Amino acid sequence: MDYDVIVAGGGLAGMIAAQSVSYYSNERLSILIIDRNQQLSLGKKTINGWVCGDAVSKAAVDFMKERIKVEWNKPEIEHHVKGVIAFSPDKETSIKFDGAGYMLNRKQLPQTQYAHSIKHGIDFNFGINLVDLIYDSQNVIGVRGYDIKSKSVYKKTAKVIVDATGVTSLLRNNIKNTDKMEKKINKSDIESTGRHIMYFDNDGEKNLREFDSEHCLIHLDQDIAPGGYAWVFPKGDNKVNIGVGVEKSFLEMRNRRLHKHDNLASLINQYVKRNKSIKNPRLSESLNDRSNATGTWQVSVRRQNDCMVSNGFIIVGDAAWMPKPLDAGGIGPAIIAGTLIGKNIVEAIESKDTTENGLWKYNTDFIKEYGYKTAGLEIFRRLLQTLTNDQISYGMKNFLGSSDIEAISSGKHPDFTVLQKINVIIKGVLNKQLINGLKFTAKQNKWLTNHYDNYPKTPNEFYEWNKQLHQKLDEAYMTISK
Ligand SMILES: Cc1cc2nc3c(=O)[nH]c(=O)nc-3n(C[C@H](O)[C@H](O)[C@H](O)COP(=O)(O)OP(=O)(O)OC[C@H]3O[C@@H](n4cnc5c(N)ncnc54)[C@H](O)[C@@H]3O)c2cc1C
Which of 66, 271, 441, 449 is the most buried (most CB within 10 A)? Predict the structure, then answer.
C-alpha cells in the first residue's frame, strides 16, 4: 500500500477527515489528500467557485475544536452572527434557529486547512481527476484517475479510501463492492442553488427583515424560491451572501401558475433587486472573493446515505448526502462526520479490520450525533414543498408551539403538540389539509427517529432495518404527494 489512508477530495469535509485521522493516530498513520484542483484552488466546487451560503453554526465548529483540536479563526471566519431567522411568506412570523454562528470565506478556508494539514504531516497530490476505485476481490484498495495536465494515468493504494469528492461523486456512483450503500438519489432530492457575494451602500431602507448584519435571514416563499428558500446572509455591514435554492419541478409548476419563464439565475437577480435594504449592490471584487463572487451549484436535501461504509471505503460530507434536508446546511454535518471519522478509521486500521464490519461504527456514531433526525426532516421538507404561501404563513402563525420552536431551533422535527390538542373548528379545506399533513409528518418523524435509534450494530442486520425504513419512506412519499 502507498498510504494508510487516502482522502479523495480536499474540500471542507475531506480535509477535516484527514486532520481527524492524523489526530486520533497521533500522526502515526500516513495520509494522502488528492484533489483535482491545484493548491490555491483547493475546495473549489466548480469553475464558478467555492459556491456556498457560507454560514455555519458555532456549535459545529466547537465540536471539531474540542475533539480534534482544529480551530478556525480570521480570515476564514469573515463575520459573526447571532443566529438564523426564517420568515413566513407574509413576513408576519419568524423563527430563530441554530444559535450563534459564523460566515466563512470558503475560498480562504481550504488554505487554512491546507496549512494545518501540512503541519501535521499530511501529503497532497494536486491536479488529479479521480474517476474510479481499485479493487482486490471485494475490497477497495485504491483510487484511479488521471493527471489533468499531463493526462497520464494516476493510481494510488491505501488501506482505507475516504470519499469526500462532493455531491456528484463518481467513486460512490460506481461503487462495486456493496449493495448496502446507495449510489444515486432522486432528482427531486436535489436543489439547484446559487448566490452572489456582494457589496452594497448601507444607507438603503432599514428593515431587519431584509438585511440584518447580526442574523442570517431566510425567506420562505413559493413564488421567490419554489420548493426551497431564499437567503440574505450578512458578511459585514455592507457585504452580503444573497441567494436562492429551488427544486426544479416546483419551479416549473410556479412558472406555469404565474405564467412566467424564470430560471434560477433570473430568480436570484429579482430577489436582489426587490431588496430595498441592499442599495446599489455590486459583485465583490475583493481579492478574497476573486473567482467566487457569483455561481450556482447543487445540494442534496435528504437523509444521509443509508450505509456509508464498504470494505476499505467510507464516505463523508456531500458525497454522503449529508446536508440538512430543511435548509441544505451541509457544513455542520460535514464537520461532525469529518471529526468522528478519524476515530473510526484509526480503530479499524489498528485492529487490522478495514472491512465493512471494521468501519461500521462510523454509521452508528454519525447517526447518534446527527443522522438520527434527517429522515424525519426529509419527510417534513417534502411536505413543506407542497404547501402554498398562505398555508405556510398560516401554519407558522398558528401551529407552532414553544416546544416546536425549540425543536426547530436545534435542527429537529417539531412535534406540533398544539395540533394534537386542537379542538376548534378549522375553516377551509387547505388548512385541514395542512393540519393533517403536519400531524402526519410529526407521526412519521417519531417512528423514523426511533428506527434510527435502532440502526443495526452490525452489517448483517442492515437488510431488514433498511427494508423497514424504505417501506415507511415510500408510504410517506405517497401520502404527501396525494
Ligand atoms: C449555493 C449553495 C449554498 C450553500 N449554503 C450553505 C450554507 O450556508 N451553510 C451550509 O452549512 N452549507 C451550505 N451549502 C452546502 C455546503 O456548501 C456543502 O455541504 C459543503 O461544501 C460540503 O463540503 P464537501 O467537502 O463535502 O464537498 P465539496 O465542498 O463539494 O468539496 C469536494 C472537493 O472534492 C474535489 N473533487 C470533486 N470531484 C473530484 C474528483 N473527481 N477528483 C478529485 N477531486 C475531486 C473538489 O475539487 C473539492 O475540493 C450550500 C451549498 C450550495 C451549493
Answer: 441
